[in-house]
Amino acid sequence: MHADLVAISNLYAADRAIDALRGEHEALSSAVRLAREAAAGGEATVKSGESAVATVTATQRTTDRELEDYVDKKKRAQTLIDTGAGDYASAERQVAQCAAIIDQLETRSLELMETRDAAEKVLASSRRELVARQADLELARAKLSARDAPIRSELAAALEHQRAVSPELPPAYRQHYDDLRRRTRAVLVNVDDGCCSVCAMRIPPQKFVETQKDRAVHVCVGCGGYILP
Ligand SMILES: [Zn+2]
Known about the structure:
By secondary structure, the chain is mostly helical. The chain has helices at 3-83, 88-165, 171-182, 205-212; strands at residues 188-189, 191-192, 195-196, 226-227.
């Protein structure tokens, strides 16, 4: 390989190693972020489930108290009828009215019981979901924490290596190299069947022969990547 191409290739390998380490760290950190958001969402769902159960429970209590009141009222009216102590007709009306309201309240109470059962099922399932999300978060944190220090030290070494190989790049290549990197383009390209492996542009045979014979360094006119022998 042409000496200049070796220098380009060494720097590119060093830069790619840095990219990979930074990418790995970013992926691990972003997994923690996402898991944290999912766990927070799970907590919010549990809270709203708890509040739904609490609301229906409170309504149930009120309805049950009301029901007890009407049962008592009906009993008292019935006693008046049984003992003949009061106005018979009005006591009978009251018994009938109470019986109708008791009917409605009993139906309402059954509906509330069903609503509460359903709300409790939803709550139980969101609690299970939350446990799973918290376990995911713990796992993501453990993965990050296991690789955090190694990545930092590998990155320090990779940066040092990059600082060592960077000056070996002849200045004439610097701008084009930096340009390719800035645009996240492939710096090195292969030639397959006379065409660039990255952009499929035809590579003039002359350029490829010169590259293979280490006589010159050429770039693909399509993507700008340096042609490998
Ligand atoms: Zn190309």
